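Cont'd.
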Amino acid sequence: MSLIEAPRTPTRGRRTGGINWEKWGWIYMRASGVVLIVLIFGHLFVNLVAGEGVKAIDFAFVGGKLADPFWIVWDGLMLWLALLHGANGMRTLVNDYAINPKVRKVLLIGIAASTAILIILGTLVITTFDPCPAGANPALLPSFCEAL
Amino acid sequence: MPEKSASNLVAEPLSPPKIRSPRRPAGTLYRGNEGMWSWVLHRITGVAIYFFLLVHILDTALVRVSPEAYNAVIDTYKTPIMGLGEIALVAAIGFHALNGLRIILIDFWAFGAKHQRVLFWIVIAIWLVLLAGFIPRQLMHVFGG
Ligand code: HEM
Ligand code: HEM
């Protein structure tokens, strides 16, 4: 098969109805992007710019943030939107560059599997987080743990 | 046959043609210009942020292991080299986000498609302002007392 098809070659395997996933993927990249601007720049401002910046981040810092449902929802949205956006973008790159069909399939399955695992892991981390684990060194915990 | 069909092309034009063939493959409206380079940068930054995010979800997951484990890993984020790495990360995400907005404007707004080149330079200008604000602050955090 020649690399470039003759002009006016009819497209093969044209869809005949059903959901147009490529269209929704295209829309998702744009919709999630707009929301991610707010979420990620807010995240970077609070964690890198405000106060002492990175130097302020430790277990107690995260405990203080995730004690507030506001930040749980914020981080959860950021996790789902950014990871799906990035994974779908990586899918585009694999489709563009992986010429060997077997390699392409392995890469696409790898992206899908790692995305599913990391979304489940990240969601569990922020929803089941315990800011005051029993038996931990009190000096490393958020100050509100003393009241318990 | 060839002599006949070419006969009327042989005549020397009165003034020589102005268009010369380019010395190297020429850019098109898109190729080799703002349109192409913004796309290249958008790809590279997107991939870089993606791999950062994979690692970042794993390092954040250490809060479920123990305070000591999380602190040990997050302390490496405070070293000078990682401090500079964070500047690179913010530069990458800043460009990707601003150029993402440019892509959206091009897609949904006729003015955007027509003026995509100007929009690219606006993206670069806002990006430079963003970095001019962030970099000194970050250097103070990482290298200051
Ligand atoms: C160097 C810059 C960054 C630092 C220092 C940082 C720091 C942190 C910290 C301390 C947390 C714990 C929870 C919280 O504070 O809300 C966190 C969680 C998170 N960050 Fe970042 N972050 C950075 C950049 C980013 C970027 C660029 C993204 C998006 C692409 C991102 C996405 C996330 C997500 C999704 C979570 C939640 C993870 C989970 O569900 O387990 N972060 N980050
Ligand atoms: C900050 C807000 C963001 C905005 C506004 C944004 C915007 C966009 C848009 C509009 C596209 C589609 C380009 C196209 O269809 O031609 C895109 C592609 C992409 N994005 Fe983002 N994005 C953002 C954050 C992220 C994050 C956090 C990641 C990584 C986790 C990421 C990774 C990618 C990748 C890998 C692509 C595919 C690039 C390509 O096809 O050339 N983006 N982005």
